[in-house]
## 1
Amino acid sequence: MHRTTMLPKHWWDLRAETSVEDPAGQDAVALRAEIDQLRRALTGRPVIDQACGMVMVLAPCRREPARNLLVDMARQCNTKLPDVALAVVAAWEGEPLPRLMQRALRHALRRLYAEVRGCDSPPTDEPSRRRRP
């Protein structure tokens, strides 16, 4: 004999009402918050993987440097990684990349190429403007 438990359709959306004194209720709230955070992370994962693949094709590199490039762009733009990945995928499909992300991409690519060449000097945004004597 098998016992079947029926759960409501969106059981994970239920909010636990708890008091400060109820440790089991606090654990349930903390676990639900963690589940929500993991769900949000998983929803952005496919587009991040797609953008990593695009970077790997465009700037011949492995997965880790490609992901680091996207993370670097996200930091420079003060944007979340899935949003940067969405913009890169949209740019691949013909939409213009926002100006700030274009600049961040150039900077991140220079850093990537400098690492590949083994240069220790940080990349610059502007070419040198020194005049020769």
## 2
Amino acid sequence: MVDHVSRENVNQVVDNGKGKSAPEGGGRGYELPLLLFGGFRTLIDRLHARLATEGHPDLRPAHGFAMQAIGARGATASEIGRRLGVSKQAAGKTVDRLLALGYAERADDTTDARRKLVHLTPRGYAALARSAAIFDELRAEWATTLGADRVRDLEAALRNVVPPETAFRLDATSWLGAP
């Protein structure tokens, strides 16, 4: 399912700020990105736990990003790599895993015989559709816990501060050192 590390806090720099009072207006600046990432991670972990019980035990977060990068029309390994912000070789490994799991297939490009396109299979489309439904359910749980207005306000606030051209980018892996 999901990799877990020990419960120790690995952010030593942030730990050094413990005991100091928070600035006026709430938390410290470093808390916002960590809380946003924690919320993201919580949603993704819960999604994959559910997918595992519903017939997709080997599906990983990277696979979901890759399937989104493949898209409805298919893509080459190079295109997938560019969309994800990883090398062609790294994209190829992920594609190979999706092929082995039955979520994708390779086919000749009808417009260019030199190119091989990766397409999603019905199993790939079904996994994405199920993911979308589970995300709707998880959002509804947040709305129950926080209140529907607060969730809508949070989404609206994020839309105001996140530039539209980066709102749905898939290349988060490039932050961690991939080319």
## 3
Amino acid sequence: MKYDEIDKKLLSLLMEDGRLSYVELAEKVGLSRVAVKDRIQSLKDKGIIEKFSVVINSEKMGKKVSAFFEVDVEPRQLQTVAQNLADNPNVASIYQMTGPSTLHMHVLVEDFQNLETFINEELYSVEGITRVESSVILKRFKSRTGYKL
């Protein structure tokens, strides 16, 4: 995809604060409001900007336990298992991976009792899973969404 330094600057500004107005963005990059609006629309049309969203602090919303799972799956069951897990409201993200594990999954739950329930009742019960490994996050040093310029 083709984009220039002004586009990069707009993207950086929007990643810091997606609520900046076209006028505020225009002032920061030295273009007119209309030119900025057109550039942002072009970035959306090209698929560089996928969507605008809000990042929610999961801890402040009651999800105090954050864990990562490495889940091995029988190959013929991969799509079914991945969709089943993706539909679970405790699963924040799930990816198919190379290497020894098939799926990499991030789970957010209220407490350790809910983590145990998730593992025993919602994860181990999924047909096609052959191995599960988990790690609980103790402290977050950095977290981001999307691609960082």
